[in-house]
Amino acid sequence: MGDNMPIDKEEQAELEQALFLSNLPSEMFDEQLAELHHANSAQDPFLNLLNSAMQSLECGELNHSAVSNAIRLFHKALGLLPDGSDLKTSSVQRLTDIESEAKFAEVNSSALQLMEHFDQSGDWTAVDNAVQLMEEVIKLTPDGHTAKAGRLNNLGNAFQGRFKRLGKLGDIENAILALQKAVDLTPDGHADKASWLNNLGNAFLHRFEYLGKLGDIESAIYVKQQAVDLTPDGHADKALQLNNLGGVFLRRFEHLGKLGDIENAILVMQKAIDLTPDGHAIKAGYLNNLGSAFVRQFEHLGDLEDIENAILTMQKAIDLTHDDHAHKAGQLNNLGTAFDIRFGRLGKLEDIENAILVKQQAVDLTPDGHADKAAFLNNLGNAIQSRFEHLGELRDIENAILVNQQAVSLTPDGHANKAARLNNLGNALRSRFECLGELRDIESAILVQQKAVESTSDGHADKAAWLNNLGDALQSRFGCVGQLRDIENAIFVNQQAVNLTPDGHANKAARLNSLGNALQSRFECLGELRDIENAILVQQQAVELTSDGHANKAAWLNNLGNALHRRFDHGGKLRDIENAILFNQQAVDLTPDGHADKAGRLNNLGSAFLDRFEHLGELG
């Protein structure tokens, strides 16, 4: 999903100009100056120059040239006043204030231009320089200054931009500090309070994604709800605030898996779209985000209508976005993800081909050095791997590993997404191992997935996912080498993954299924009945937690059937092979023709029928 949106930089520049003028106090027209209007004509040159200076500031567009001209005229005016006069003393002080304010405005404007450049190009040096300039501006801005809150807001946004590029925790901590100060300095009812609350919510969301602490996503929702509540109906920013609130509901859903959150996300995102007229520049962004919410709801409920709606809305977003737009690549990437997910459900080659096509376009549109290049490479690698698993063409898994490795290499150590990219590289290496059987691939997969686990703090939202995938890799090595410690470790980390995943989470069933597979593998090694009993128990839970129509229902049914078949082989109880046939048949029925796994599931069903025949000696 696209990032939540901060206050527009052009609006902020206009605000700075307005604050510049508002900080030219009425004392310039104090009693002494008023008296000059009634004094003799000898003073007229001073008044004329002063009036010209003020007109330079008050008329037309306020820019560097206008300010410089006003200061030059002010200096000339001062030259006409006698030394030692009270008016000259107060006017010198006023000129000093104007020059200081002009310096602040100039430095702040340069910083905003650097941030604009960063947003367009992803050049991290631009945001680094912007942070330095904005920190200088804050140091020079006294407490109580009317521009203090706005400048703190800009500094917070710059820290967020640098955090997204470099992933350093200190930057997002500083962003929250600066943005909280901006909010605290701004009274309710101020025109910009809602925008600054929104930006603070973005910062809490970024820290949540780094540390995975629930308190941060709760804080993000709280302040973004305040932003919505402070924005009156009919206000130009109402749709923006609703869209951004939907984004944090979506993220909490991804963490906790509570259906109410995804329903709220879709509700407020749809409101944002309904409030935005066709042709508005931001409409495409809202459509893209709503599409991402439909994707997540599909993954939770398995209702095909949701993934269809996701693809439809994301395609609309792309159609509304020019090729040179900064967000075009991100929208293509998200559409590719939706195609990839529908491929996983229906197994149609056209979907994975489209996924790879649009994700490759996203990569091609993104210049080297851009903050999002690594993310798009990572997602392209995932799609290529999916096609490999469907067609089995070696060049696909080779390319998947190549682009996933590029994504890892482009992601600095300590970055919030480093672990995720290591994890995905490990998945690709494991897929190649399962194709070629080369031990070095599974060794490398375990190594990078162990790094992913170790670099992720306990309590992080993704810790369970990385543990689950590490367990799967250890299972694969056990299947090749047969060392008991691998399957013991696999069961240990898969159990950790299950324990860390809350009930109701969208991925709970998948992690129970993986644990069941590991227990079944140990049973086949040691023959201890408790392992196959436990395998059946957790795989039954996986099936029960998965709604009919869900993309993975057939897989969980197939694995449950296989576990029951193994127990039948061990104990010879008829009911086990009867149930194995029942679940294997359901798995086959739920798998569409042409799906990559159809043949394997038919094979498992056939084996179950054969064993029942050999047990009973009866046809039919």
UniProtKB/TrEMBL annotation:
Task: Kindly indicate where the leader peptide sits in this chain.
Answer: none
**Organism domain of life:** Eukaryota
> What are the coiled-coil residue ranges?
none
Entry's InterPro entries?
Answer: TPR-like_helical_dom_sf, TPR_rpt
- Entry-linked PANTHER family: FUNGAL LIPASE-LIKE DOMAIN-CONTAINING PROTEIN, KINESIN LIGHT CHAIN
Q: What is this protein called?
A: TPR-like protein
